[in-house]
Specification:
heterooctamer; A alpha/beta (183); B alpha/beta (258); C mainly beta (72); D alpha/beta (360); A: 183 residues; alpha/beta; Pyruvate-ferredoxin Oxidoreductase, domain 3; 7-stranded mixed β-sheet; 6 helices; 36% helix; globular; C: 72 residues; mainly beta; two-stranded antiparallel sheet; 4 strands; 14% helix; elongated; binds thiamine diphosphate; binds iron/sulfur cluster; binds magnesium ion
Chain lengths: 183, 258, 72, 360, 360, 258, 72, 183
């Protein structure tokens, strides 16, 4: 099994940490993982993305141009990465602020209204965990229990009390994700 | 009074303030609320007022303001980290009738560029240095600068600047004022309208003195780096008043004799 | 004779930093609940008390405020 | 069991420094490697192992602090990225001339000039041929995983002290910024003063009655004396070339063609190799781990018998010269590179093999 | 008739600078090249041609002053010797990246480190492969007479402005300190502001209505943009390689062997050639004048048909790599060098030819 | 009195002064009458008096005193031009119980090394800097230094230092005294017995303060470079008194509070 | 009780700079007409007025003077 | 004609300027010349030497190990360069301060007591011109008139009034040089 994922969105959306939790969870499940962020100068704003690879075998390139899965959190990222999904691959996106929806016919497309849901539940900070949940629903590359272990490893001790809320958000994500097109 | 409609007021002939054309229309990449933008604007306004657009060479540093050349609609050179005063020295000596200024951050000017800064000022190069002191390395992600306050947190002083280990904040501006080469040395800010107006006057004065060949003119602007300080812009400005100003008191430090 | 002012915020360029809000002596400005294309809650006039003093424009880091003034 | 962590390459360098008992780190922030200093400052190793960590005023100061520390027989290091490393060239030459063991990591970004902060491998010449003045060589290790970023800190110090020669870790923004699994080693104690005095009599730790005074210098005003210094250095370099060449061979058993690639490029070439295999093209990968000493012999051995060799680098073509020197015109050698911060895609690499070597 | 003078190589550089109309010199003292600044200060060219001369606070400042001046379209230059040139590496990379025409002379001394102040050629790699970071090239001229020290100042500026690329004069303490006859050229006027504005629209001389504002930078935060910059640079470099190779052939008509040597070494090799001729050994001398672009073609052409080639350098073996790349293993290539400030004797060179090539 | 013969006086038990063993027997390469030799000797004497021979690390600069390591019988590192304070910073931090000093000329310390000097002092590195100010670059043949006096001739100011063009002499010592990191800053000389004795006391004080962890201690010694000044040693010392001392007045500039 | 002093100059190491000459309160020292191996006119005592004050030795840049003192 | 000369002595003896006058005179006589000094750090004292080549044809190496003529002005230089004279070549030395005299049997040896003579005449500063005269007597590689021209070119204008004294010293040198051994 090798799952090559790109997660892309605005700077403040928790893209990098989502990738990190995913990667750490992969480690807990004894997988090989890599996490490769886009990076730029410090200034706030702009887009951000991270390539996460989870695999049963040694990972060759951590930097890729084509992905099994693209998790897309804003319009710019959709424009940039829609065509980077392998045929037959998966594209998950949050429709918030998106005015041009994905158009490819040869990939699986799912929507997750995580922004709205997070706002509704008053858990804006856990927005990214909702998205993560949605992804895991569609592609259960990591088992439930390892996500908890991954959170334990990736969050600093003082934030461990928030783990239950995180897991609840993952659960929420699993519930609200919906298929738009499956191929 | 409510009989006056907005449409009546918003007419070209009623315009009292708008962004100077000496700045381009490019969106500045600075974080929301960052003082760099304000500082840019007033420098540009002064150049415009002096009618010096076609007679000015600016030198951008390495730091958040590295891209200043995208915003100023004048000729700009981008210098290696800390070396802007060396570039400016050459530019002014080779073209003495141009208005030449550098625009530098505290890491650029007071850490790696200490030698170039001191020697340009000591030679009394007839240039103006605009020095944005935000107490941190903004561009690279909020590391400690020479000007970071005691106990202030940064990504390389995550438990606060420990002066025993990391040294004292460097008041480079006060040092430069000691050099016979400097003609005018002042410390200002740009977070309130009053300060912006005062700073603009200071820049005007510096440029005027440069035109007279008075020597090096130096305008420090104590500013925020809300991103590096991890605060909202408004909180950052408040924190600056409460913490930076006591350490870096505003006002003229050296004014020409006459 | 009274002085009436107004500001025009270039909404798409505004970064919603809020610096202008506190700078206005007339408490004219607030940040909108709406966001612009970059996701910022931009500045807007919340009343007609503006006197066109330009304070807001002068401190706006992004120079996105234009100020108008009319003697009435 | 060893401790396992998900870490950035930069953090791995810092963590390794603490754990293997480095005495001092001196550095100046620059993207994409500032996490090294940041991680150290966050970990406060001075409370754990007594390690000294200092943010210097510039890279020129950093490298000269390293000189001072290394001259005391201490394990000291710095890290930087391209423009910062360029500023260290005088210092590197001095350190090489004074034969001081130390470690410098360059997390390369796209140049020339201020360039970009994205990954690059265009500092190969600077590292391996000598960016500073004079005839000297730096032991140059090129990690291609985060684990190697960690491991090579220890390895570099080992080699540096073995030969009294500076060692550098030539990495790039990709390896520096990416996270992978890292197995951490146990904390080791720093060397004691007694150990240093006994083992490194050349070190300026304070004169001792039994060894007289130690002098660390790279000056010899008389040319013939300076030539003697150089002869000694050259002898040492030959010895390192004989003993310390390191490389990895992947799928080289019955390859028709070879990729030669190091660091990030080796990772991406490996993916290209997978793609090639899918198409039935037999490509092997020779991954130099030491860039100097360069694995000339194995490249010559395998490469001269192959149908062609592609040097894959994130540069306009630097290592390819060493590959050519190894191949000696016997088979086709070409370079494929993206540069200025652009990372090549696996598909591009395969394509380059097809057009430049197979069809070329 | 041209004015004739007995001058040191260093003085010749300074005098040429004044006479060809250089606008600015910025430098820091270092042996064996301090006579350049000293001669300029004694001649007071600011009174003659308006040339600016400034003793900078360091080599780092000098090179960045050169950056600033060159960015104005002015003819500016600096000179230094090895350790000082190492300190300029960040600046050189910036200047190359920003495509600024300027001239830098390195009067090489023995390294590494503080080394010695005697002549050396061990900064060849640094000059030709890139001592700074990133993919860039410096046009590198190697004078072997004092007259060439004089002439190459003008030639360097010509090439530098033709290609918007820094040019360096790679000399050494021998050529810098020796005196020979020099034919001086007439004083030329410096370029007027109008000329510069018209000819170099990229120059930051103050914005002009017709060209908008000029920006001099080496930064492109986006990797793909930075790659474009690099592609443009590489294209330019190929052009320079095609057009600007310069070399001298001495006694190459029916040579069995070749010396390849530049600068001082070429002078000494010439004497060795005279000694060889006395013994009936037919040796030719190929003297690269441009070290980059390197005269690969002629060396390949002549060398591959010879019985062997000896690369003679005052280094531990640097240019020999470029010679090997040219010869491609076709005939024997060996290096002979003295180093660390020692100058080889003609007899030694001949002896090396006999033992390493003829008998070897 | 003439009944006492020389042989009676010249006996080991009557010896009251001879060169310290902390200096080697190597002939110093300095020009006749150069102050470097005297400065070396008193530094050596203080180290000897402190019994610190085996506990001291000295840092030699690039300048005429580059070969200091041949004369001091202690461990010495030779630094790149201007960087001695950076070396000393590392040495002291890594071995805090050693006595660490740099010995630097005015070109080394106040030109190329400005950044390292200021930042080491600003961090209050617990080291001692011995600064030989002879107003010129001795080693390289008498070029102008940052400290060269106005109108003073040197090989790069052959018509005298023109302050308009070349800048003012840099009083770096006064600047360093402003920094909170420096504990003791003084300016002395070594051309007469009285000055030698006073300077020796200053060095002793600096080393004592270092042992107490007081911060950076800085001893400037105004000295001659008779060779660079193109004078006899005796004339040079006279010229120094008449010309250098008015510009660089001798005495303590900063002394520790207590 | 009088104090008698004497100095011994290490002639081969003396560089004849003359700094000691002016430093002596007793005008004991002069530079010799003879030169040493390096061609320097070395320092020597010209009378027996030395009081062993060490002034000469203390200022000698090359540390070549040894001073003796005897109370007689 | 090619004459390869080394001149060696103490720092203050005018070795370099003697070489320069010789070289300049060569130029005036339309010869090719090179002048290559030893150089070191600034400190006073120590030895100094210069290689001067005067030739009718292009000069190859300016740096040599064997010489046609060695002009030696102190013991150290004698020790260093005696063996660098080509067999049949010329060695001229000033015996002042020399305690080990040249011993080679295969070269021409001349003595010139220039130090003493200069002191006697009170023209210490022209010591080197006396030596030059001696050399020119033995090897007239440059004709008399060109020496005057050489002096004019090499001395700064303000010293031109000293040229007659210089020439007189050259004359003196020609008179006092004496052969010790000719082969
Ligand atoms: C030689 C070199 N070293 C380090 C850097 C990395 N760097 C870029 S900006 C910067 C600091 C910027 O801080 P400051 O000057 O305070 O500007 P600010 O961003 O705060 O406005 C550093 C260290 C560099 N580009 N070049
Ligand atoms: C990087 C570098 N630049 C320049 C030099 C040449 N250099 C050697 S010593 C010196 C100046 C010495 O002057 P100072 O520090 O005043 O010492 P002094 O000789 O006067 O005691 C210079 C410029 C060098 N060795 N290294
Ligand atoms: S990082 Fe700081 S200095 Fe840079 S733009 Fe943001 S707020 Fe301004
Ligand atoms: S200050 Fe300017 S950018 Fe900030 S909120 Fe107000 S209008 Fe917007
Ligand atoms: S112009 Fe003055 S009154 Fe009007 S909104 Fe701006 S700050 Fe307020
Ligand atoms: S050159 Fe000057 S500083 Fe150097 S030893 Fe001679 S007198 Fe002293
Ligand atoms: S001071 Fe010393 S070196 Fe100078 S003359 Fe006197 S004894 Fe000799
Ligand atoms: S010891 Fe005193 S009295 Fe005696 S010679 Fe020396 S200075 Fe003169
Ligand atoms: Mg800052
Ligand atoms: Mg000095």
């Amino acid at each position: 099994m090798t799952e090559e994922i790109i997660i892309a969105g605005f700077g403040g959306q928790g893209v990098l940490s989502m990738g990190m939790i995913l990667a750490y969870s992969g480690i807990m499940q004894d997988k090989e993982v890599s996490w490769m962020p886009s990076y730029g100068p410090e200034m706030r704003g702009g887009t951000s993305n991270v390539t996460v690879i989870i695999s049963d075998t040694r990972i060759s390139s951590p930097s890729l141009n084509m992905f099994d899965t693209a998790i897309i959190l804003n319009q710019q990222s959709l424009d940039k990465f829609e065509n980077a999904v392998k045929p037959g691959g998966l594209l998950i996106y949050d429709p918030n602020g998106v005015n041009r929806h994905p158009e490819r016919k040869d990939i699986n497309i799912y929507q997750i209204a995580a922004t709205d849901k997070a706002a509704e539940l008053g858990i804006a900070r856990l927005f990214n965990m909702i998205v993560l949940g949605g992804f895991l629903k569609v592609k259960p590359v990591i088992s439930e229990e390892y996500i908890e272990l991954g959170l334990q490893k990736s969050l600093p001790e003082r934030h461990h009390k928030l783990i239950p809320d995180n897991l609840k958000a993952v659960q929420t994500g699993k519930e609200i994700i919906k298929a738009i097109q499956t191929v | 009074m409510s009989e006056v409609r907005l449409e009546d007021i918003i007419k070209p002939e009623n315009k009292v303030y708008s962004k100077t054309d000496l700045l381009t229309d490019t969106v500045m990449h600075y974080c929301p609320g960052c003082g760099h933008g304000t500082a840019h604007r007033i420098v540009a306004e002064v150049i415009e007022e002096l009618g010096a657009q076609n007679n000015t060479v600016g030198i951008a540093p390495v730091g958040c303001s590295v891209l200043a050349y995208n915003y100023f609609n004048i000729d700009v050179q981008q210098a290696a980290h800390g070396r802007a005063p060396a570039l400016a020295t050459a530019v002014k000596r080779l073209m003495p009738d141009r208005l030449v200024f550098t625009y530098q951050g505290d890491g650029d000017l007071a850490a790696i560029g200490t030698g170039e800064t001191i020697h340009a000022c000591n030679r009394g190069e007839n240039i103006t240095i605009i020095f944005i002191n935000n107490g941190i390395y903004g561009m690279t992600g909020g590391q400690m600068a020479p000007t970071t306050l005691p106990n202030m947190k940064s990504s390389t002083s995550p438990f606060g600047r420990d002066v025993e280990m990391m040294g004292n904040p460097l008041k480079i501006t006060e040092l430069l004022a000691q050099l016979p080469g400097t003609a005018y040395v002042t410390r200002q800010a740009v977070h309130t309208p009053a300060h912006v107006r005062r700073t603009k006057k200071a820049i005007r004065k510096a440029f005027d003195l440069q035109a007279k060949g008075a020597g090096t003119t130096f305008v420090e602007i104590v500013s925020n780096c809300n991103s590096g300080w991890k605060m909202t812009p408004v909180d950052a400005n408040k924190w600056m008043e409460e913490n930076m100003f006591p350490y870096y008191p505003l006002g003229d430090i050296k004014i020409p004799a006459e | 004779m009274a002085i009436k002012g107004a500001i025009v915020v270039d909404i798409e360029y505004c970064k919603g930093c809020g610096v202008c809000v506190g700078a206005c002596p007339q408490e004219v400005i607030r940040l909108s609940k709406k966001v612009n294309g970059k996701g910022y809650n931009f500045a807007e006039m919340q009343n007609d008390a503006c006197v066109g003093c330009s304070n807001c424009a002068v401190v706006c880091p992004d120079g996105v405020i234009t100020v108008y003034r009319l003697k009435v | 069991m060893k401790e396992l962590r998900l870490m950035k390459g930069n953090e791995a360098i810092a963590e390794a420094a603490i754990r293997i008992g480095v005495d001092g780190y001196f550095g100046y922030p620059i993207t994409p490697q500032s996490e090294v200093l940041e991680h150290l400052m966050a970990e406060k190793p001075w409370e754990k192992t007594g390690m000294v960590v200092l943010q210097a005023e510039s890279e020129v100061a950093s490298i000269n602090m390293v000189y001072g520390g290394a001259a005391c027989g201490k394990k000291v290091m710095t890290t930087s990225s391209s423009p910062g490393f360029s500023l260290m060239q005088e210092g590197m030459s001095y350190i090489a001339g004074a034969e001081l063991p130390c470690v410098v990591a360059n997390v390369v970004r796209g140049g020339p000039g201020l360039g970009t902060i994205q990954p690059s491998q265009a500092d190969y010449f600077q590292a391996t041929k000598g960016g500073g003045h004079g005839d000297y060589k730096l032991i140059t290790l090129a990690p291609s995983t985060v684990q190697e970023m960690y491991d090579f800190v220890g390895l570099s110090f080992e080699l540096a002290f073995k030969y009294r020669n500076p060692a550098i870790i030539l990495s790039d923004g990709l390896i520096g910024q990416m996270m992978e699994k890292v197995y951490l080693t146990e904390y080791k104690e720093r060397w004691s003063d007694e150990y240093i005095n006994k083992t490194f009599p050349w070190a300026t730790t304070g004169r001792a009655a039994d060894r007289g005074n130690s002098i660390i210098t790279s000056l010899q005003l008389q040319a013939d004396k300076q030539e003697e210094v150089n002869l000694r250095l050259q002898k040492k370099y030959r010895e390192i070339e004989d003993n310390e060449v390191r490389y990895e061979l992947i799928n080289c058993e019955d390859a028709d063609y070879y990729f030669i690639a190091y660091g990030s490029s080796a990772r991406i070439s490996q993916k290209a190799m997978e793609l090639a295999a899918e198409e039935g093209i037999k490509v092997g990968l020779i991954r130099p781990i030491t860039l100097w000493p360069f694995p000339t012999k194995i490249i010559r051995e395998l490469g001269q018998k192959s149908k062609g060799v592609l040097s894959v680098e994130m540069s306009a073509g630097q290592m390819v010269e060493d590959v050519r020197l190894a191949i000696e015109g016997k088979v086709k050698v070409e370079h494929f590179g993206r540069f200025g911060g652009v990372i090549h895609s696996p598909a591009e690499i395969l394509n380059a093999l097809k057009t430049k070597i197979i069809g070329g």
